[in-house]
Amino acid sequence: MNIENVIRMFAGTVILVSLALGVAASPVFHSPNWLWLTAFVGANLLQSAFTRLCPLETILRKLGLRNSGAACGT
Q1: pLDDT digits (tens, 9 = 90+) for 27-40
Q2: What are the boundaries of each domain within the chain?
Q3: pLDDT-derived band of residue 1, with 50, 70 and 90 as boundaries?
Q4: What is the pTM of this model?
């Protein structure tokens, strides 16, 4: 599995979990403040498309995952 796939899986998981915890209609609702995490992940993905900087990519590269040249799954 390459870095791009791991980043996509991580971002998708964090977004879905934070939505489950932040939306009042969810059975596991905790607080609407979890929606800030959703916004942070979305903003990080957006900025990485322009800057090619992705903190998770740096961490995964240090852990030994191979990179196919794209930042944050783009």
Answers
A1: 999 999 999 999 99
A2: 3-62
A3: confident
A4: 0.82
Locate 48 and state its tokens. 């990485």
Asked if 35 and 22 touch (Cβ cutoff 8 Å), the reply is yes
Helix (H) / strand (E) element for 16: namely helix 3-22
Q: What angle do CA 1, 49, 52 make, to 5 degrees?
A: 75
- Is there a contact between 11 and 73 (Cβ–Cβ < 8 Å)? yes
The total number of residues written for the chain in this structure: 74
**What is 26-69 written as a DSSP string?**
STT---GGGHHHHHHHHHHHHHHHHH---HHHHHHHHTT----S
